[in-house]
Design brief:
The protein folds into two domains: about 240 residues, Vaccinia Virus protein VP39 (Rossmann fold, 3-Layer(aba) Sandwich); about 190 residues, no CATH class. About 30% of the residues lie in helices and about 20% in strands. An eight-stranded mixed sheet has the order 6-7-5-4-1-2-3-8, with helices on both faces. Strands 11-14-15 form a three-stranded antiparallel sheet. Helix 9 crosses helix 10 and helix 10 packs across helix 11. The chain is elongated and about 85 Å long.
Length: about 450
């Protein structure tokens, strides 16, 4: 029947559910009669949903299509903040299963017409009386629309046991509301041709049920103290990667910190010879870009950067900060041991990037870290990140310089380079960090 409609009728039904989810934001959703899982594949992109369940009597169909619900590579590379678990069950909608009670939304899209009328009564008891969801969406063919289909004789599908008129569907829905404490709104999808809508209605009629609050005895048929019933067979379950998982959060945070620290180090090394006083601030402007501010050309007001506070030597060499005291001669120095200094006009072996700078320059780092102290805590003991001795900065090594020094390994050992990793630096104190963050 779909070729008569644009978009196809099944997509219109699914879009109706998606729009309802976006508006009402249910966290737990189950699709009864999920078949090939098409609706579930669309609903998994709705961030509000934390638990998405599909149930179908045909286990073979589920097994054939279930892997299409698995996370893809980008879900692991760029996990979101929201949690999502997907479960697929084989079972009949006429049977009770404790795991499906208390959902926010139950959908039954073109399902009940496949049931015998006696089973429709069981369906009503299970869904509305036992599962007691906050909302239910039921769609079913409208038989009054059938004469508009050319060449159609009988039902729209060979497996249909009945097809209701609008009056028959509304009679069933209102009876359900009266018996189980719901209210219902009637609508549909699949518009009739101009001038025919009032006479024949929608091609697929839809009832949207809402539970009328908490009622005494809403589970009177089965009782809240009844034993757990596990009638369905779990065929598939998967947890999507989420930043609420501390291990995933740490992995993504470390990746961002390493990337931005290296980026700031490279930018500093590329531009340092052109900076009059050898110090500049990298931060995001209001437009979302980056800017460099040379301290040698700023007054006190200009030193208030877009990051929200005055920054002193935002990128520092291991052992000391780049300050105005270095003067116009711009002699680059880094510690090689506890007592000596060695000039390195082009390539220091170690650059110290304060966490406060990473915090101000990378919104994702600040969002993932939560706070500067928590950021430092998350980075501690991670093998991919080397922090300064006081934990206030990330130490980034110049790999090119290391490769040059490999040819003279003995000189490297004598230089005390290993001690450079333990050197202290003039870090931004907590008060300045808070000023930058604000």
């Amino acid at each position: 029947m779909d070729p008569l409609f644009s978009p196809p009728l099944h997509r219109q039904r699914h879009q109706f559910v998606i729009d309802f989810v976006k508006m009402n934001k249910p966290k737990k959703v189950v699709d009864l009669g999920c078949s090939e899982c098409r609706l579930l594949k669309n609903l998994k992109f709705c961030r509000e949903i934390e638990l998405l369940v599909g149930v179908d009597l045909n286990g073979a169909t589920i097994r054939k299509k279930m892997h299409g619900l698995a996370p893809i590579s980008t879900d692991y590379l760029q996990p979101g903040y929201d949690q999502l678990r997907i479960e697929l069950y084989q079972g009949s909608v006429t049977q009770k299963d404790t795991r499906l009670r208390g959902f926010d939304l139950v959908t039954s899209i073109e399902l009940i017409e496949h049931l015998h009328l006696a089973d429709v009564e069981l369906f009503s008891e299970v869904v509305f009386g036992y599962m007691t969801p906050a909302a239910v969406i039921v769609s079913t063919p409208n038989s009054e629309f059938n004469p508009l289909f050319p060449g159609l004789a009988g039902f729209r599908h060979s497996d249909h046991k009945f097809e209701w008129t609008r009056a028959e569907f509304q009679s069933w829905a209102l009876k359900v509301c009266l018996e189980y404490g719901y209210e219902v709104e009637f609508t549909g999808v699949g518009q009739a041709p101009p001038g025919e809508q009032e006479r024949v209605g929608f091609c697929s009629q839809i009832g949207v049920f809402h539970r009328l609050g908490e009622r005494d005895g809403c589970n009177r048929l089965f009782g809240d103290d009844a034993e757990d019933l596990l009638s369905y067979t779990l065929l598939y379950s998967i947890n999507y990667p989420s930043l609420q998982d501390n291990n995933i959060l740490r992995r993504v945070l470390v990746s961002e910190v390493v990337y931005w620290a290296e980026k700031l180090k490279r930018r500093w090394m590329e531009e340092k010879t052109g900076a009059r006083d050898g110090a500049f601030t990298l931060c995001h402007t209001e437009e979302g870009g980056e800017e460099r501010v040379s301290e040698g050309h700023m007054d006190m007001e200009e030193k208030q950067t877009a990051c929200g506070g005055e920054m002193k030597s935002p990128v520092q060499k291991c052992g000391r900060s780049l300050s105005e005291d270095e003067g116009e001669e711009y002699k680059e120095v880094f510690w090689t041991n506890g007592q000596e200094q060695q000039e390195s006009c082009t390539s220091p072996r170690c650059v110290s990037v304060p966490l406060a700078v990473l915090w101000s320059c990378c919104p994702k780092v600040s969002a993932l870290g939560g706070s500067l102290s928590n950021l430092r805590h998350l980075l501690m003991d991670d093998p991919e990140v080397k922090l300064s001795e006081d934990g206030s900065a990330v130490l980034v090594y110049n790999q090119e310089q290391d490769q040059e020094d490999e040819e003279d390994h003995s000189d490297l050992e004598d230089s005390g380079y290993a001690e450079a990793t333990q050197c202290s630096h003039s870090a931004v104190d907590e008060e300045e960090w808070e000023a930058v963050r604000s």
